[in-house]
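On clarity, I found the account of how folds are encoded harder to follow than it need be. For illustration, here is how one protein appears when written out as sequence plus structure tokens.
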Amino acid sequence: MDRFHLRAAMACACFGLIIAGCSGSGSGEQTGRISVGVSDHPMHDVAKVCIAFTEVELKPKEGPPIMSDMMGGAEIVTVNMLQFQGMNSAPLAIDLTVPAGGYQWVRLGVRADRDGNGGSTDSPMGTDCLVDDSYLVTETGEYYSLYIPSGAETGLKLFGDFIVPQGGSVDLTVEIDLMKSIAYPDGLEPDAIFRPRGRLVDNSKVGALTGTVDSGLLASCAEPSVLVFVADGVDATLDMSNYLTSVLLNEQDDGLGNPEYHYTIGFLLAGDYELALSCGEGTELQPIGGASVAVGEVMTVPQIP
């Protein structure tokens, strides 16, 4: 959708601006401002994953939930999640005025109905989402509607305490784990199951990791991705069932005609992390290094010798 990408280009500035936060106005008003964006943990074999968001709901610790307006008052904001990975996020709401104080959760409404059109009226070319519905397009050109079994009105609810400061602002990011959220049961075509899973982070409390993967590890790696694990003070348990987030590799030229495989992972809370290379479901994970995350910093992960 052209109108969305114009707004996204203005709002998805560099990560340093995202994590810097905003200071309060000192006006003494009993309100503050909140911004909510979405990012994704990517998946293989898809060319486009479009999610149609219908609302942003916030739950104060005291009082009923608050239904907020989305970007420009739009009824639906459709996002190609593959365009917002690593340290990038797509804005759903910016500088909404809400009561100051503590909050318990955020819910993103999603349009994801059974027997949708599978995005079949959209073109597989380009990155824009041209249909106000949730769907995906595979790399081989197959279209699937994304269907939430519990009902499209449920969407994605994420619990996490955060505070909207009086006269100030808070910026939140919802990371959606596409690999854990989407499944293709037999007999459901052209629908695919979408059970949104993710995590909620306060951008003022996060940093990022970046690094490279030795090309020798990728020689027989069919579906390479980097998984991030919380180190828990000792060593992380490197298991596909407990990774925190993930990212695909970005192939670049080193200037001498040789490929380099880079990754950058954003929205990580301060702490220690271990990273592993996954070559797909059922394959053995290969440790590739670890590092500590500092708030507001992009830390380089040294490769394991």
Summary: The chain has two domains: 2-196, 207-300. The chain has a mean pLDDT of 84.
